[in-house]
UniProtKB/TrEMBL annotation:
Keyword Calcium: no
Ranges where the Methyltransferase type domain occurs: 52-139
Transmembrane regions listed in the UniProt entry: none
GO MF assignments: methyltransferase activity
InterPro entries, A to Z: 23S_rRNA_MeTrnsfrase_RlmA (IPR052939), Methyltransf_11 (IPR013216), SAM-dependent_MTases_sf (IPR029063)
Name of the featured protein: Methyltransferase domain-containing protein
GO-annotated biological processes: methylation
Pfam family, one: Methyltransf_11
Keyword field: Methyltransferase, Transferase
Species of provenance: Pseudonocardia humida
């Protein structure tokens, strides 16, 4: 294991565009949900005529799907990710559309049979319901409640109770119903995440910026050094992610 300074510098220099986490190989591990999200959408997408992937990131998850429907569209709001997704997906016939963060899709009503999304920041339920055709489905993997709270509270200190219970799957299901959708399935799993060096922590905090807003390696040096020492003593730092599979249908 390198020195603290070397590892922090390594994590601070690693590229953070897109949702490719291969840089973490050998540095961190995360247990996967039992339903296999990419495998699940790979089974569904070829069965429909038109599909929309929301907040596709750099397009890595969608790119791993072998076959698409005749009409396949992906949206992304962060320009570096949108550009990466376009390079990855357009050669395969996917239309990649840059969208603003405002909750509105630039698509006609009842345009898609299937809307998918992996880890959306916030699902736009009214818009999802609007662009789905009658009988169309929303199939997504959301981040669940208290995900990575062990790491977040190590860096930020104890969070208010309201923050600890954010992303409650029952609340999201109620929001989907309020938008006119019929909720067919909700599953939640807690998954083990293990960090083997502080470079992995720095890299992820730079990549997943909403965990520790305004994260800075110099300002947060005390917490990072304490975590580095913990990893050296225990061999790793264990946290727990939370994932939710939700499926909903537009009636009709």
């Amino acid at each position: 294991m390198g020195t603290y300074e070397d590892l922090v510098a390594e994590g601070a220099a690693a590229p953070v565009e897109g949702w490719d986490f291969s840089w973490l190989e050998g540095r961190a591990t995360e247990q996967r949900p039992s339903w296999g999200y990419q495998r699940t959408i790979a089974d569904r997408l070829p069965r429909v005529a038109a599909a929309l992937d929301v907040q596709t990131g750099g397009g890595e998850v969608l790119a791993g799907v072998p076959a698409y429907p005749p009409v396949m569209v992906a949206t992304e709001g962060w320009p570096p990710n949108a550009a990466r997704a376009a390079r990855l997906l357009r050669p395969r016939g996917v239309a990649v559309v840059a969208v603003a963060d405002a909750p509105a899709f630039p698509f006609a009503d009842a345009r898609f049979d299937l809307v998918t999304s992996r880890h959306p920041v916030r699902p736009w339920w009214a818009e999802i319901a609007r662009v789905l055709r009658p009988g169309g489905r929303y199939l997504a993997q959301h981040v669940g409640p208290a995900s990575m709270l062990d790491l977040i509270e190590w860096m930020r200190g104890p969070l208010p109770a309201v923050d600890r219970h954010d992303r409650d799957p029952e609340v999201e299901a109620a929001q989907a119903r309020a938008a006119g959708l019929e909720v067919l399935d909700v599953r939640c799993e807690r998954l083990r995440v293990e960090f083997f060096d502080i470079a992995a922590v720095v890299h992820l905090l730079r990549k997943v910026i909403w965990w520790v807003p305004d994260f800075d390696v110099e300002r947060d040096d005390r917490q990072l050094r304490g975590l580095h020492d913990r990893i050296r003593t225990d061999g790793s730092f264990v946290a727990w992610s939370s994932r939710v599979l939700i499926e909903a249908r537009r009636p009709g």
